């Protein structure tokens, strides 16, 4: 009987406000140590002897958080995403259905993601002892021997010993303080909410007591969506499962219930007093994290983020927590009442605060972004983002401005060339010409293949690493050539280079029209979009009729194949006949690409008067707006073709494309300008954040150089919109 650790990621941790919020609940926060509770739990259960694969059950909105935090600790897991929370019975049923479908003899060790258990070895020993009970046909819960009365936990009244475990006389709800003291005297155990059970047994008990739950779980697992090795979104049948806890659904009814008394230290960190008790403390009993000073103060908990200084003087037993503009001050003994305060704030619409924007008009945005670009970003990425020893540009800078050593993609060299050539066109007085040719010369020298196409990747030393000639990368080569040729003609025959590359591209032609891309998705809209952008740049610069013809061909493909005729939205992936790709690939809609195509189609309408282009652009823009998260004010990464959320994270680039489309179509450009500005608030002015998580926090990571192309193009669109119209 193989062991499958199951981590339950439900719960919002309201009593740990303002740090814990529904979009970023306590299990994903580093409450006690450097890692989040979820990460600590993964590492604890992954080390169980005999563990086969960790299974994570979580809400769809937390997908990006889970994937990012698993990556941070170098661990993988089978992730099952609930389309909607249905309480613990349905979540456990889904995990057990997943296990049972792969291993009918499998045993699930079900734990909560947000529990603090400092002694990993003691937990593992207890879990393995409970496995022995499970092998005897029991559903075993871990009952923690209390070290004090507590009204914060449910209790278990143990019965008689039955092999390695005990029978259960009763499960009881959270008591009042007086009743809790009586429970301690009577030998009751804390109900930890952790279970060890054969997956098939739990499903069988649900079949007997709550068959709608087990049926929904099996169907949801069978119809789950997601590629092999990726997170799986449970099917819609999951929504039919009643919302009920596992205690009510099974444990209070089954004859298979058992409990294993355990003695290890345990806390569910349900409120700030519990966090204080579990945290390292100084000699005065203060648990301080962040920028804080405690003077003549005792037994306090302080959490202050970077940029906020908290000072305590002459106080005792306080929790002071600062997070995202919200401040909590409460007596630790009143920590359970935080939920009451949060409920009142919600009712008043004051649970969260929006950061102030650096401008309040589109003209103000134009001035602000232009100043940021000229005085911060362009100097930073030339001085620190360029490799002045080996040539070319670095892949990324840390938020503090430190170059990241990594193999170099061709698209970074061409995009940075575009950025500095564009800077020259905008009149930047810095060394734009030197920077642009620095990138172009390195690109032509290091990436050219014998067939006239350009490879994907070289090492830091410039040695070839990946010979793939992606259409996407060739498009950016053409765009960089067109832009630099227009900004600084005469040094290298870039027009000739462009024609040679266009000729070489014919090898990638697809018989049904358009071009094939390398990789898993050979028939896609995205590579064509950037090829269209490059062709339009050459056409606008007088590059010859072949560029206008190429652009017109791609426009036709977009209007007739890429854009859904009924819905007006644009899909990403297709089959060889340019029909929507089967399965989930064909359902993908990226809001950022709706905006980006809208921008290109509107420009094409201006260039050629094509009557279908502008209406299509407006429909795409409307589709893109359906991917704007109203709570965060950002365009998210992905939707399904029914406009349900597929990925609630939000990278920087969809904000730039939203802004460009709004400007060219005469729509509200202030909202996307505000969205973009938030990504540019970094310790090294001129860098940026790349990914906003569903909770609104930014993932800590270096700023990718490839994003500069998007920012520069958005700044150019703002600048153009601010120029007086010529008559």
Walk me through this protein's architecture:
The protein has 727 residues and is of the alpha/beta class. It is 40% helix and 16% strand. The chain has 22 helices and 28 strands. A 5-stranded mixed barrel has the order 5-8-6-7-10. It has a 4-stranded mixed β-sheet with strand order 11-13-15-16, with helices on one face. Strands 18-17-28 form a 3-stranded antiparallel β-sheet, with no helix packed on it. The N and C termini lie far apart (80 Å). The model has no long low-confidence stretch (mean pLDDT 92).
Write the layout of secondary structure elements.
Layout: E1 3-8, H1 37-46, E2 55-59, H2 63-72, E3 78-82, H3 87-102, E4 107-112, H4 120-135, E5 139-144, E6 155-162, E7 165-172, H5 177-185, E8 189-198, H6 199-209, H7 211-222, E9 232-233, H8 246-251, E10 257-262, H9 272-278, E11 287-290, E12 292-295, E13 301-304, E14 310-313, E15 318-323, E16 326-331, H10 338-347, H11 362-383, E17 396-397, E18 403-404, E19 408-409, H12 410-425, H13 432-447, E20 457-458, E21 464-466, H14 471-487, H15 494-505, H16 525-540, H17 545-562, H18 591-608, H19 613-625, E22 628-629, E23 634-635, E24 638-639, E25 645-647, E26 650-651, H20 653-665, H21 670-679, E27 691-692, E28 703-704, H22 707-722
Helix pairs in contact: 3-6, 3-7, 6-7, 11-22, 12-13, 12-14, 12-22, 14-15, 14-16, 16-17, 16-18, 18-19, 18-20, 19-20, 20-21, 20-22
User: Taking all residues together, what is the mean pLDDT?
Assistant: 92
Question: Biggest sheet, in brief?
Answer: 5 strands, mixed, barrel
Strand order of the largest sheet: 5-8-6-7-10
Q: State the end-to-end CA separation.
A: 80 Å
Helix amount: 40-55%
Structural class: alpha/beta
How many strands in all?
28
Helix count from the secondary structure assignment: 22
Q: Uncertain segments of ≥5 residues (pLDDT<50)?
A: none
Radius of gyration: 29 Å
The amount of beta strand, in percent, is: 15-25%
Q: Specify the overall morphology.
A: globular
